[in-house]
Structure formats: structure tokens, C-alpha cells
Amino acid sequence: MSFVTMRNDLQPICPAHHVPMVPWMLWLKLDVNVSPKPCYACATTGCCYHWDIVQGYFTTREGEHIEHDMNYWQKCEHDGLPMYVADFESQKSKRTWKCGQLGCTGSRVTEGPSKATAASQ
Ligand SMILES: [Zn+2]
Ligand SMILES: [Zn+2]
Prior knowledge:
By secondary structure, this protein is mainly β. The protein has no helices and 8 strands.
């Protein structure tokens, strides 16, 4: 993969709540090490969605596993990186996706409901 630099002024939207996500430091347990992973997180209580430029949208379980959410996966055509939802219009279920790579202008617009996120919780 080419050199990846996540911009720090992004405003991804939570795919579940459609609210802006906030910059976040996720402490991930990998093997024996716990290392910080900069990402964005939904501030809604109980929401476990995160986004970063390598994983795209993902959820975590107890800070140990990362689970991708393939319902919210759009690849940037320039660099193949997962994009984030920058804008959501609820009436048309229209999402504007953007690439978070520094200097990249990749974007895409999708319409229609994405598949319901499985597992009834
Ligand atoms: Zn959320
Ligand atoms: Zn890109």
C-alpha cells in the first residue's frame, strides 16, 4: 500500500446515527501490546462505530477485535482507500463519500438504503 496520511480535519458521519463523528484515540489490544490508534468515533452513547483511513467503518469488541462493516464500504478510485460518508440526505438516502487521504479528492455519491446492519441488537 502506498503511503497513507489520514487528514485530521475530516468529518465522517456515523453510518447508524448520521451524526458527525469526533476524533478519537482507540486503545487496541494486539497480541500483548496495547497501542493507540487514531480514528474517528460516534459520540452517541452505546454506538460502537469507528472510522479510520485504513479500516474504513468498523466496530470493536472490547478493544480487541476490529470488525469491518461491509455495508459501508466504498473504495477511493485513486488510491483504493476506504472512504467516509461526508454528507447524508435522509430523504433520498443519498450519501456523499470522500477520501480521507491527504491531498486526495476522491469522492462518490450513492443513493438508496444500504443493507440493514445485520444482528438485531
Ligand atoms: Zn453512531
Ligand atoms: Zn483517495
